């Protein structure tokens, strides 16, 4: 994501949060207000006695954490080989060492595939959360953006 796209998404979430706050105030809903878009959605969903948004959000965060956990060993292996070959023993043949020890490139390759798979799952959950579940939540609440 480039900086412009990140800024646009941030402004979009800010606008949506403002719309939710105005809807809560206008309709005098007994819902706490939050400065966090996702927490505000949690509170509104609790008001409706549902948990779809929260459930998908928790799954998305869990997948995100697992992708980081799986990626760490790959980073450590590459960093250790680089540091050893660059500063500790400059005559060390890093490439040859990896070729001679298939476990050192097969295991990271598997971990990279798992990380990429988790990233795709995270992206699909994020898309489902913000493009399907959130609009459904707004419909259930009767939020009309044009009114605000």
Using only C-alpha atoms, the radius of gyration works out to: 23 Å
Number of DSSP helices?
5
Backbone structural class: mainly alpha
Helix percentage: over 70%
Most strands sheet? none
Along the chain, the helix and strand elements come as HHHHH
Q: What is the beta-strand fraction?
A: under 5%
Terminus-to-terminus distance: 30 Å
- Assembly status: single chain
How many individual β-strands? 0
Could you explain the architecture of this structure?
The protein is an all-alpha fold. The chain has one domain (3-147). The protein is 80% helix and 0% strand. The chain is built from 5 helices and no strands. It has helices spanning 3-26, 37-47, 52-88, 94-100, 103-141. Helix 2 (37-47) runs antiparallel to helix 3 and helix 3 runs antiparallel to helix 5 (103-141). It starts with a helix and ends in a 7-residue tail after the last helix. The mean pLDDT is 91.
């Amino acid at each position: 994501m480039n900086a412009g796209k990140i800024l646009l998404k941030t402004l979009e979430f800010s606008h949506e949060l403002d719309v939710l706050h105005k809807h809560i105030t206008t309709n005098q809903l007994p819902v706490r207000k939050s400065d966090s878009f996702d927490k505000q959605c949690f509170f509104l969903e609790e008001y409706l006695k549902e948990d779809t948004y929260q459930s998908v959000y928790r799954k998305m965060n869990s997948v995100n954490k697992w992708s980081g956990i799986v990626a760490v060993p790959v980073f450590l292996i590459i960093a250790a080989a680089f540091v050893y070959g660059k500063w500790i023993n400059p005559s060390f043949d890093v490439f040859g060492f990896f070729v001679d020890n298939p476990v050192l490139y097969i295991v990271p390759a598997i971990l990279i595939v798992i990380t990429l798979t988790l990233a795709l799952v995270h992206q699909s959950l994020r898309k489902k959360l913000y493009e399907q579940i959130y609009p459904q939540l707004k419909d259930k609440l009767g939020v009309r953006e044009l009114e605000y």
